[in-house]
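User: Before I run my own analysis I want an independent prediction to cross-check against. Here's the chain; please return only the structure tokens and, at the end, one sentence I can use as a sanity check.
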Amino acid sequence: MDVFPDFGAVGGAGDLRAIVGALLMYVLIFAVLAILICGVSWAVASSSGNYQSAMRSRAGLFVAVGAAALAGAGVAWMNFLIGIGQQL
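Assistant: Structure tokens:
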């Protein structure tokens, strides 16, 4: 099952493909960097007994994981919307 958007249904499909691909790449790179930074800071803060910083790092980690999941789900959402647009 291919979960990539059907860009043949809209005009300017090549431009749309390039923009979505670039944005998705940047979001995923920044999400992975945030996951690494927050994970390390959570571990350091927990081991040093700084529980307030550990809680903030844990929240940042969960936000970064959520952003990565939403970026991945955005492709499926865009494919759904393009499919609906073909039917209208």
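Sanity check: The chain has two helices and no strands.
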